Amino acid sequence: MYTPDIILKKDGQPCISIPLSEVSFFNKNKQFDIITADVFQLGIGTLWAKQYYDIQNLGLPSKYHVQVGECLRFEYHFQENITYSIGFVTTVRGNDETKNWTKKTWDREFRIKKDTDGTVKLLLDLDAREDK
């Protein structure tokens, strides 16, 4: 499992991205195919899931790709004070998706917490599950 970066955007929604540590100075423009993405809530189940590949032809490249630091497109409106688990699977763009050598599974928990004074903050990992 790999851990994506998550920050809050100005609109209060999370920006979930592949960390800069995934590229070096010499390949900083490397792109990643997004194969699948999902949003899960404990006790509820899967809230949203999307497959970005052609199940009939796994040799075709993914229809969706990003670079490190670019916000991934999660077509879900995240609400405050709910703990979510997000996940996605990537390969390095241009590689055959049926091969596993560049496939990575990303997963992280987070909660957007709104305090009584209106302050909004992002809680990650264990902090997302605790009542802070």
TrEMBL record:
<dbReference type="Pfam" id="PF24295">
    <property type="entry name" value="DUF7480"/>
</dbReference>
<protein>
    <recommendedName>
        <fullName>DUF7480 domain-containing protein</fullName>
    </recommendedName>
</protein>
<dbReference type="InterPro" id="IPR055903">
    <property type="entry name" value="DUF7480"/>
</dbReference>
<feature type="domain" description="DUF7480">
    <location>
        <begin position="2"/>
        <end position="115"/>
    </location>
</feature>
